[in-house]
From TrEMBL:
Cellular component aspect of the GO annotation: ribosome
Keywords for the protein's UniProt record, in alphabetical order: Elongation factor, GTP-binding, Nucleotide-binding, Protein biosynthesis, Ribonucleoprotein, Ribosomal protein
Molecular function terms from GO: translation elongation factor activity
Naturally occurring in which organism (per UniProt): Microcoleus anatoxicus PTRS2
Domain Tr-type G intervals: 7-286
UniProt-listed InterPro entries: EF-G-like_DII, EFG_II, EFG_III, EFG_III/V, EFG_IV, EFG_V, EFG_V-like, P-loop_NTPase
Superkingdom of the organism of origin: Bacteria
Protein name per the record: Elongation factor G
């Protein structure tokens, strides 16, 4: 078996907005390097990138797919990441294991904003990245606008990148279409050639000025990090290609610049130059490892999990980046034996006996190991992992077949392992099982996985709002007597209760002020249980909170009294007393922080007010250039689909964090409507 040494491997993530052509680019990369003989496409659902049935059905990537190929004797492993914001967690988890990322985008200037959160993550993690402007044919619809549109795209990218944007190529348009490009490093022009590498052609005379300007831009950006190049530029010396490539490699490797390439992935145009640039300029795995503080060592093995899969056959595969050492199949990591070592190509696996530092491979059956975990022989290291996104959308779920409930718990655990941005909980009040995630499609895809992989069809509905109720007025000396005679000895309990409202958030409080043993000590717990049971469902039909109940008086029977009878007496007293206490409906209020580019702040404020929110203020989001954070209180009842509206108002990039803050009275007309629609308020 041919094993590459460190330096002969490149791990590249393919990332970028939804449907920008990432899977098409991967297909093209695999095709031009001979890894596949026939290209698939998203329409026909036969790509390596979108290998799962959920992805194929939707013609979109729903999880990370790995594929390897060789080019110029270097092994390239590509991670094709989903573009949809709802599957962003996949992308973040994968990105931490690569040496560089290709950001694929479309040549539409007013959509570059959708790249902002991705650029932010890449910058925060210092992940070297370059841009591939795909579908460049769409920007070059006539010869004269081809160059100016390209310049506009470069400027749009500059407006969202904190790193300098450096054009690496310049387009050549002819008769309403793009026919080639000029490499700004070598100043060599090329014409695209279907099914073959681009043909070198003389630099078109009419583009010399534009080419020179774009090249100058590139050189000036590079010179900001290289004094020698700066001196050459000042002396008007033309630097040679070798020197420029050296700078590009150093500056891309250190995540100081963002080079920009162009192409048409579906026609393989611009794909070979992209590969050549990756070969020459992308950092080697050891450089990445060093930047993460991992020192190379042959003995120590350190790997990190980038993605967890359960195969259609039910086996667990953990896609890992080997940061350090040589890993053999059968080795023990974190006390768990590696059971199978594979190279992945979509769902196809190729068995390996060992793999070296810098490779991305899949390991079999690492039970108990999660995405993001660091594994070593002696558990001595823990590398940073990507943050887990806050859940923003929920559905209540239930198995279609009642007796599937036990099966559901273990299946949910598995799909959560595959996708750490899912969370599930059983709600304490409503008893619903709530599945939380990043949006409607995200949850639908997860539920399809449950059905397909685990034969678990589920029903869904929007979760109930966990309303509660409380009281406005006190009631005192409420009498409850339970007396029952049914053969044998009877049942007797007799209590007097005071019921009082408590300040909001105080909860429930029970005390007894019994003197002289009129209710014997052993029956008092029964009274409290009776009160508590009643409060599970108050007069409006919801759990009662912020109430104090005091047992003030009562009587007993030496034979017939029991804890059970006092429980019943307490319930009767509560039923009678609470009817006099003016019950009010309470709703949960969330404290929400909404993040969006500043140009959308007024829309965010409108969204909050339109959802009965109370705006607390807004300010610049720290470390996010051009973004605001709006802080507000919003009723939970209004939050259910708020992410859908927020995304539609903010080109898909707005997001929020929320947490439960408090309960608050529901305003009167609305409370009536809630009680009508929930069918409550009748007991
Ligand atoms: N005109 C044109 N269409 C393209 C090109 N590349 C991809 N497409 C089309 O764009 C659509 C999306 O392509 P994909 O490769 O599936 O996009 P993606 O970025 O992988 O999608 P997600 O991963 O779901 O975000 C498909 O219909 C492709 O056929 C291109 O270079 N030119």
């Amino acid at each position: 078996m041919n094993h590459k040494v460190i330096g002969a491997t490149r791990n590249i993530a393919i990332v970028g907005p939804y449907l920008s052509g990432k899977t098409a680019l991967l297909e093209s990369l695999l095709s031009v390097t001979g890894a596949i003989t026939r290209k698939g496409n998203a329409k026909d659902g036969n790509t390596i990138g979108d290998s799962s049935p959920e992805a194929r059905d939707r013609k979109m990537s729903t999880e990370v797919n790995a594929a390897s190929t060789e080019y110029e004797n270097v092994r390239f492993t590509f991670l094709d990441c989903p573009g949809s914001i709802e599957f962003a967690q996949e992308t973040l988890n994968a990105l931490i294991g690569v040496d560089a990322a290709i950001v694929v985008c479309e040549p539409v200037t007013d959509r570059t904003l959708t790249l902002a959160p991705l650029f932010k993550f890449l910058d925060d993690w210092e992940i070297p990245h370059l841009v591939f402007v795909n579908k460049i044919d769409r920007a070059c619809t006539d010869e004269t606008t081809c160059g100016s549109n390209f310049t506009n795209i470069i400027n749009a990218l500059k407006s969202i990148s904190s790193r300098p944007i450096v054009p690496h190529q310049y387009p050549i348009g002819h008769n309403e279409k793009i026919i080639g490009f000029i490499d700004l490093v070598t100043e060599q022009a090329y014409h695209y050639h279907p099914g073959a590498p681009a043909d070198p052609v003389p630099l078109p005379e009419h583009l010399k000025a534009q080419e020179n300007e774009a090249r100058q831009q590139m050189l000036e950006e590079l010179a900001n990090f290289d004094d020698n190049l700066l001196a050459e530029l000042l002396e008007e010396i033309n630097p040679d290609a070798e020197e420029i490539t050296r700078d590009l490699k150093m500056e891309l490797g250190a995540d100081l610049i963002v080079p920009v390439f162009i192409g048409i992935a579906e026609q393989d145009f611009g794909v070979r130059p992209l590969l050549s640039a990756l070969l020459r300029e992308a950092p080697a795995p050891e450089t990445t490892a060093q930047r993460r503080g991992v020192i190379q060592s042959d003995e120590k093995v350190t790997v990190q999990v980038l993605k967890t899969y359960y195969t259609p056959q039910g086996g667990k595969l953990s896609l890992v980046r080997i940061w350090q050492g040589t890993l053999a199949d059968g080795a023990t990591l974190n006390g768990i034996r590696v059971n199978g070592l594979y190279r992945l190509n979509g769902w196809q696996t190729q068995s390996l006996t060992h793999a070296k530092a810098g490779e991305i491979v899949a390991l079999g059956r690492l039970e108990g190991v999660n995405t993001g975990d660091t594994l070593t022989v002696d558990r001595t290291k823990s590398l940073p992992k990507a943050e887990i996104l806050s859940p923003v959308y929920a559905l209540a779920i239930a198995p279609e077949k009642r007796n599937d409930e036990v099966k559901m718990t273990s299946a949910l655990a598995k799909i959560l392992e595959e996708d750490p941005s899912l969370v599930w909980q059983q709600h304490g009040d409503t008893h619903e099982i709530i599945l939380w995630g990043q949006g409607e499609i995200h949850l639908k895809v997860s539920l399809e996985r449950l059905r397909r992989k685990y034969n678990l069809p589920m029903t869904t509905h929007l979760p109930q709002v966990p309303y509660k109720e409380t009281i406005r007025k006190p009631a005192s000396a409420i009498h409850g007597r339970y007396k029952h005679q049914s053969g044998g000895h009877g049942q007797f309990g007799d209590v007097y209760l005071d019921i009082q409202p408590q300040p909001r958030g105080e909860g429930f409080n029970f005390c007894d002020r019994i003197v002289g043993g009129v209710v014997p000590k052993q029956y008092i717990p029964g009274v409290e249980i009776g009160v508590r049971e009643y409060l599970d469902r108050g007069p409006l039909g919801f759990p009662v909170v912020d109430v104090a109940v005091t047992l003030t008086n009562g009587s007993y029977h030496s034979v017939d009294s029991s804890e059970q009878a006092f429980k019943q007496a307490a319930r009767l007293a509560m039923q009678e007393g609470m009817a006099k206490c003016e019950s009010v409906l309470l709703e949960p209020i969330a404290k929400v922080e909404i993040h969006a580019p500043k140009e959308f702040t007024s829309k965010v404020l409108q969204l909050v007010s339109g959802r009965r929110g109370q705006i607390l203020g807004y300010e610049s989001k720290s470390n996010w250039k051009g973004w605001d954070t709006v802080t507000a209180y919003v009723p939970l009842a209004e939050m259910q689909d708020s992410i859908v509206e927020l995304r539609s108002q903010t080109m898909g990039v707005g997001f929020f964090h929320w947490e439960f803050d408090r309960l608050q009275e529901v305003p009167e007309p609305l409370a009536k409507r809630v009680l009508l629609t929930t069918g409550n308020g009748k007991n």
